[in-house]
């Protein structure tokens, strides 16, 4: 049953502009209706038992819940008298979240906090600085900006203490940043390009001190990595430069710039085969984002349409990364599935929504920079319940999986005509569009592959029982897994034939095609005389050809190639002497285990996953 929306956002006139009302849904709904959301929805009447007073208010200042809780002793200018004159650090917000009336620089404190109650009792106090907080601010010695001083001294466009040792001056930073916005940004538009470029060119001030320089280096690192057509170490140098601007003390501050930096670091580390480091960075970014209130939108919020959209884009890109990582690693969802009230980003072009926009533009009916994250978010919103069932015990029945597939995933497939798999998409958006459909097919493979494995085990234990029949639902689950694997292999192969593989496309393509190829590998090894065996051989050979196309761009491709050869080499060519004995097929588990432990490259790559 479709759930009712939990909140309505932003219906208010601000001077001559109006932020339109949009429905907000929690991300954990079982039958999410995000695809059916309309902007002209009427606000439902409030029930009689709902308090008429607002229990929490939107932020009144431009900081949007940013905070800085660094202790005074963190300042290099702090003297001994400052360090030891106070028993406690008075700048830090009270740990009980009960004494804070002024919402500026304290982070998001929701309705369950004592501060929310206090603000209702002392509404006038929100216009005044908390005396304790003000005293802490005034008692801190004025500090100069070390980044600005260093830039003036060394004349470096971006700041890092490792500039010379990493030979950053030899890197074309402009090219690297252009590369980021040309490719990675079109799938994951976390950073508002016009704003960042203006900051990079120093047309407008660069915010957040050293965190901004870390973000700039991460954008450059991801740009170099994703558009590369061969192995290079340049992106590693840029990542190291970004890390040099981040320290453990950075976690005592909170702002969107730092959230973006941590999120990009996380995704970069995953693509560099450090999945657990990626997981930790992403957790830091998520908690900081919630501390900034990115999971909330407020009624009567005096915020410009562009700033609202920037917050939404950051939140939902993080959502996609988090869910993708959970599925890749087979771990429980760490993303909050309740109490999240954020609308999806608008499907608009950057020229339709600028800092001067006074109204929310009409959404486009074609692919834009933001279409990919919108469609991925809709998909994961619908698929999260399925994933939760798949990783739980007992494993869902074939009947249940088929019902979930038909009622949720098929709804997503038909939700937007202009994003269907065979839609004509501009080359700029082709990679993101392809990845979305590969991801969907991979998810279906994950859903149904236990039934393929069960069939393989039964074929091993009962090799002579060729007439065995299966319940209709079990047979359909098996057929869907085999079909999705074939479609995935065909789609990825066709994409790489028609598009020169960049490292970004090659990363996702290799992961998804390798996962898909394991299905015909299992089937062929255990039923080599099946009428479907020629099709399975064809799929595996097609996979091997495609992997060879990827190998110059992604070194892990060669490892994947060797694994498939070890699994299916003797079975790939029709031969009257093809091994068909039970003993030969029983080598399946042994070979698989040897491959996983003996081929470090593919093990690391597959565990890293496709985020």
Structural write-up:
It contains 22 helices and 6 strands. The chain is mostly helical and 611 residues long. Among the domains are: 56-155, no CATH class; 480-608, no CATH class. Helix 5 crosses helix 8, helix 17 runs parallel beside helix 19 and helix 19 (556-568) crosses helix 22 (600-608). Residues 1-43, 82-87, 129-153 and 580-600 have low confidence and may be disordered.
The end-to-end distance, rounded to whole angstroms, is: 31 Å
Radius of gyration: 27 Å
* Overall spatial form: globular
Class by alpha and beta content: mainly alpha
Helix and strand element order: EEEEEHHHHHHHHHEHHHHHHHHHHHHH
Brief descriptors of the model:
globular; 6 strands; two-stranded antiparallel sheet; mainly alpha; two-stranded antiparallel ribbon
Summarize the structure.
Helices cover 52% and strands 3% of the residues. The protein is mainly α.
